[in-house]
Amino acid sequence: AAMLLLGVGSVAGYHYFAPHKVDAPAAVLNSDQPHPTVGVDLRYRDLVQDVPLDDAKVMASVLPANRAAMKFALDKFSLGEVSQALTVSAEVTKKGNDPGAQMLYAMSLFRTRLMTDAYREMLKAEAMAPRDSLRCWIMLQFSLVVGDRSVIEREVQHLAHDPQYTDRANKLLDRVRERG
Fold first, then answer.
1. What's the mean per-residue pLDDT of the chain?
2. Is 37 left (phi over 0), alpha (psi -120 to 50) or beta?
3. Which of 94, 87, 90 is nearest to 22 (CA)?
4. 75-81 — which CB contacts under 8 Å span 24+ positions?
5. Which residues touch 27 (CB under 8 Å, ≥6 apart)?
6. Tell me: the pLDDT tens digits for 106-156?
7. Rounded to an integer, what distance in angstroms lies between the CA atom of residue 169 and that of residue 171?
8. 87 CB-near residues (< 8 Å, 6+ apart)
9. What is the mean pLDDT of residues 175-179?
10. What is the pLDDT of residues 69-79, one digit of tens each?
11. Regarding predicted confidence, which is higher, 13 or 91?
């Protein structure tokens, strides 16, 4: 049954996006607001805890109306068709109403090492309502990668009362403060 659902979702996504093919994902390269260039900061690299793109909680955070398209994008990504995957993801996020899709798009950009674009898109996702502890946790991981202390502190505060993440977030913050 799961394979049937996966197949139907992939076919539906293909038929929706195939007529809209674009050679390069322009949304990846352009932004409405300038954002400073970021890169990997090695100080906290060992503190980062990976959240896989295909984590069920990540896909569950995407609005139901966008799940088939985002699943299609992930399938393309896993097949090495990165340009098409990013194009599909960018198209879904243009609506600006799905923080889960925005987060998944940011995570995809991160996996392609487009750090500045990934960080900018993740900041957008984290700022979208409704707030969600999973997005705060993932934003914390992004901020550790780029060494953004103010965002690290903010995200630990956001997670302060979350039973799933508060202990881990506080331990990470303690280690960040030890390193300066």
1. 83
2. beta
3. 87
4. 75/10, 75/13, 77/53, 77/108, 77/111, 78/54
5. 90, 91, 93, 94
6. 999 998 988 999 999 999 999 999 889 999 999 999 999 999 999 999 999
7. 5
8. 17, 21, 22, 24, 25
9. 94
10. 999 999 998 89
11. 91
Q: What angle do CA 98, 165, 109 make, to 5 degrees?
A: 40
14 has a pLDDT exceeding 50: no
DSSP state of 45: G
Q: Which two tokens stand for residue 70?
A: 């985002």
Residue for token pair 């049937």: 4
Residue 171 and residue 144 in contact, taking contact as beta carbons nearer than 8 Å: no
Both tokens of 57, joined, read: 């909680």
Task: Map residue 60 onto helix, strand or coil.
Answer: helix
Distance CA 43, CA 46 (A): 8
